[in-house]
Each structure stands twice: as C-alpha cells, then as structure tokens.
Design brief:
Elements (H helix, E strand, L loop, with lengths): L13 H11 L6 E5 L6 H13 L1 E2 L1 H6 L13 E5 L19 H18 L35 E2 L7 E4 L12 E5 L7 H8 L7 E6 L15
Parallel strand pairs: 1-7, 3-5, 3-6, 6-7
Antiparallel strand pairs: 2-4
C-alpha cells in the first residue's frame, strides 16, 4: 500500500520517498540504516513513520492498508528511543547538573523529536509529553496520560503502554525487546561494539531504524573510518 503522506508529512524528493516507502514503513524490513547529512529529514521521517506504526487505526483503514482488522494494537507495541549523550564539542562543553524533573533533563536530547512532533499532525492534537506518559498509571517524572481523543479522526494512542520509552545505552545490557520499534539516533557516535550490543537487544517482532551521519562525529572514540 503506497502512502503519499504520513501524519501530514510527505516525502520531498526521491530519496525521502524511498526511505519512507521501502524502509521505514516496509513490514518486511526489520533493520534499516538511514544515513544522511544534517537537514536531510532523517529524524522527521523516522519519527512520523514509527509513531504511525504504533497508533491503533480504525478497522476500515487497516483493511485498506492490508493489515489485520482483528488486531487491537498497532503494528508495534511501542517505540524505544536510544540516543548517545555526546554533545557538539565533546565533554568539555557540558552544562553540568541539570535541575528539574526527568522530562526536564531529557528535553534537550529530545528537541529534534519535539520539533518533528510539532511539524506533523500530532502537534495540533497533543503535546509531546503525552507520548511519554502511560494511559493507566503515572509514569515517574512524567505523570499519567490525559489525552484520550482520536488523532486525525482515525487513530488512538496505544491503550496499554506509553508511545515512547527513552533509555540510555549504559543500561542496555541484559534487556530484550519484542514487538518494538527501536530508533537509534546519532548512531555515528556509538562505537561498533556499542551498536552491536544495541542490535542484539532486538527480539521477535522488532524493527530497528539506525540513523546517523558518518561525517559528523562528536565522540572522540569514533571516527569516519570506524563508521
């Protein structure tokens, strides 16, 4: 099923179209490397494609897309966002301890996704923070989800989980995921060993989207040659 747009976002050139149609939205592709320079649309396309596959759409629309009409969940149960904590200029440019809630501490790293959220149809429906909240209980640092309406009149947020889980690679060993989309952002700042460990966490029914620009490295332990 060819998609002209996803949550209000349409591909602007052939490369974005190929990335969206044959990689990000393709159920037969479980590992997709999305490489491009800054401003090429990696984050925006990956964000809307991942959210689209977690949303629970109406039966009629699922039938048009060739998806199971009896399934009461999205194509995946949730999205795990993993991003290295490297900053431009390296450790010497860190701002130090950041006060506030868990969301306040994470917000600087989530800014590209917050921008993508606002640019899509999601921005007119609900604030980004709702994507991190659980529908049934209060998430530590986030609170409980209050948004219960339909998105664009056709889809609900997952009924039994938050849309996003934001995690840190230092605590990734020992974990495993099923029925999950993993967004590995700024992957050029992970070492090959770290990325191998991350990919090994993907279990049955997972899709991993690895995004990065091999020519824009901020981690001194990495290099263009390694990438």
């Amino acid at each position: 099923h060819v998609r002209g747009e996803v949550l209000g976002i349409s591909p602007r050139d052939d490369e974005q179209y190929l990335a969206m149609q044959y990689g990000l939205l393709n159920p037969e592709v479980s590992l997709f490397f999305l490489c491009g320079s800054q401003g090429s649309g990696k984050t925006l396309l990956a964000y809307v494609a991942a959210v689209d596959q977690v949303l629970v759409y109406d039966k009629e629309l699922r039938a048009i897309r060739g998806q199971s009409v009896s399934r009461k969940e999205g194509e995946f149960k949730r999205i795990v966002l993993l991003k290295p904590n490297e900053i431009i200029g390296g450790k010497r440019r860190e701002l130090g301890f950041m006060p506030g809630s868990l969301y306040d501490k994470l917000e600087p790293h989530l800014k590209p996704y917050i921008d993508a959220h606002k640019e899509s149809k999601l921005g007119a429906c609900l604030p980004f923070e709702e994507m991190l909240r659980h529908p049934n209980y209060s998430e530590k640092g986030y609170g409980q989800r209050t948004f219960k309406d339909k998105i664009d009149g056709t889809a609900h947020l997952p009924a039994h989980s938050s849309v996003f889980e934001v995690t840190y690679s230092g605590f990734f060993r020992g974990r495993s995921f099923i029925d999950t989309i993993m967004l590995v952002d700024e992957a050029q700042n992970f070492t090959p060993y770290e990325l191998k460990t991350i990919l090994e966490r993907a279990g049955e029914g997972c899709k991993v989207i690895v995004m990065g620009d091999p020519f824009q490295v901020d981690n001194p332990a990495c290099s263009e040659g390694i990438n």
